[in-house]
């Protein structure tokens, strides 16, 4: 869709001059360049003299930097994301969780298991090999042979990346400045 058509939609839904949308509300915009009277939410400082209404919403005279960020609703006492104030920034996190591993006895009976967690086994770089002849109790350790190394991977379970994120589409957040 050409930019001119987006601008037409923008004006026709009342987001231009005299808009019912309050000054300072972030709006996703499908272009790199905001329309006249709007500013990018890129963390830039602005003049309170030039944009007095915007300064009432952002009294630090600095716009929020929403580049590459998701907006999250403020908890406001609900108890899901406690201890945060409005406009506070929160770093990334992955919820604490655990992955179950089979017990040592499983390795004897389950031919699909290809790893063994015990100080009696050592990673040679390509294989897991038996290091000693006794188990933790000092009894003779059965010879299970050689196991291939185990590497945890998310390949096949979804896309691997340097962050945890939901599917998304990139928009440019802008605010009405006047």
From TrEMBL:
Tell me the domain of life: Bacteria
SUPFAM superfamilies listed in its UniProt record: Receptor-binding domain of short tail fibre protein gp12
Family matches, as InterPro entries: Phage_tail_collar_dom, Phage_tail_collar_dom_sf, Phage_Tail_Fiber_Structural
Positions of the Phage tail collar domain: 24-71
PANTHER family reported for this sequence: PROPHAGE SIDE TAIL FIBER PROTEIN HOMOLOG STFQ-RELATED
User: What's this protein's name?
Assistant: Tail fiber protein
């Amino acid at each position: 869709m050409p930019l001119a058509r987006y601008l037409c939609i923008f004006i026709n839904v009342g987001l231009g001059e005299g808009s019912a949308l309050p000054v300072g509300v972030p709006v996703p915009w499908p272009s790199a360049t905001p329309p006249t009277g709007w500013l990018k939410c890129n963390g830039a400082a602005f003049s309170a003299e030039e944009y007095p209404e915007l300064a009432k919403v952002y009294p630090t005279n600095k716009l929020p930097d929403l580049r590459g960020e998701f907006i999250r609703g403020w908890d406001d006492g609900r108890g899901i994301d406690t201890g945060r104030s409005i406009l506070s920034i929160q770093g990334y996190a992955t919820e604490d969780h655990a992955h179950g591993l089979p017990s040592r006895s499983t390795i004897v009976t389950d031919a699909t298991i290809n790893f063994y967690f015990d100080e009696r086994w050592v990673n040679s770089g390509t294989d897991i090999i038996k290091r000693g002849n006794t188990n933790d109790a000092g009894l003779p350790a059965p010879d299970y042979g050689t196991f291939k190394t185990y590497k945890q991977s998310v390949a096949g379970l979804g896309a691997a990346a340097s962050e945890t994120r939901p599917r998304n589409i990139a928009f440019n957040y802008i605010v009405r400045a006047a």
